[in-house]
Amino acid sequence: METIRTKLRPLVSVVAPCYNEEESLREFHGRVAAACSGLTGSYEIVLVDDGSKDATWQVIEALADDDPHVVGVRLLRNHGHQLAATAGLHVANGERVMLIDADLQDPPELLGAMMACMDEGADVVYGQRVSREGETWFKLATAGLFYRMLTKLTSVPIPRDTGDFRLMSRRVVDLFLLMPERQRFIRGMVSWIGGNQVALPYERHARFAGSSKYPLSKMIRFAVDAITSFSTVPLRIAVWVGLVTAGLSMLLLLYALYQWSQNVVVAGWASIITAIAFLGGLQMLMLGVFGEYLGRLVQETKGRPLFMVKSIRAGKHLHEVPSN
Ligand code: UDP
Ligand code: MG
């Protein structure tokens, strides 16, 4: 990427992954540009088109035509939120980098407060939601459950009610980019880096336009990715479940021996069937857990590129990334 982009080092880069955000982008750009130019003239806005099906890329090109601060990155296909954000972080050259959603759920105006926090010595300033407008009770309930589970399962402190909305120092971004994993859970990975990480409370708004690109299936995938990449506790649970069921079956054996001593030999069909079904189910469940980890291991060992860039647009210049 460095070979394509000149070695500019703006004070701040704003990185936003965009998937089918044609309706929000102009408003988003306007508010980000206002927030940045209120602080400094030295900024860039990196908009990553994550293989959108609508006119998102055309809007990004039009924005880049009018505003030299805009850098458009077009991915070859849809890679998902976390990888699109990673692509943006690769391209961003800023001394500090703010990661933000393009749907205006996170207010770009917080940049000033985040920059001030970083001036005080923070390495990472992350937004922490004190309220979330326009979310269904289902999303709130599942998100709450997810964070409770995750903190129980992992030793990395992953603060509750945070998203990927954050300002990071160049050092943190560079360290983040050294992490090669495909199953990316950005907020956890940044947490793992450590240093001085400061929360900044804010109100999360409803989307400016369109609907969430996270249907239930993607949410589940995201949650499983997060848990498997930050905890091996589920693997250890198998050991405990195994011990407990072994203990229970010992009791069952004693009971069977007692029955036998009383000459009761035929009774017990129901309990046998139940035990077999229960153990069968349990074994499949545990195999499934192993499979989740194994599958991820396979994905990681392939070492494929995290994302593929089709072209990069900076100002009037379009750099097609060669296809071979
Ligand atoms: N997004 C993306 N690729 C995807 C899905 C989403 O780049 O495959 C972007 C989307 O455009 C938005 C951000 O990721 O800027 C967060 O997505 P969304 O608002 O749908 O998630 P939610 O806020 O509902 O969790
Ligand atoms: Mg959103």
UniProtKB/TrEMBL annotation:
Q: Where is the Glycosyltransferase 2-like domain?
A: 13-173
- Classify the main location: membrane
Which InterPro entries did the record assign? Answer: Glyco_trans_2-like, Glycosyltransferase_2, Nucleotide-diphossugar_trans
Which GO molecular function terms does the record list? glycosyltransferase activity
The record's Gene Ontology cellular component field reads:
plasma membrane
Positions of transmembrane segments: 237-258, 264-290
What family does this belong to? Belongs to the glycosyltransferase 2 family. GtrB subfamily.
> What is the protein's name according to its record?
Glycosyltransferase
Species for this entry: Teichococcus coralli
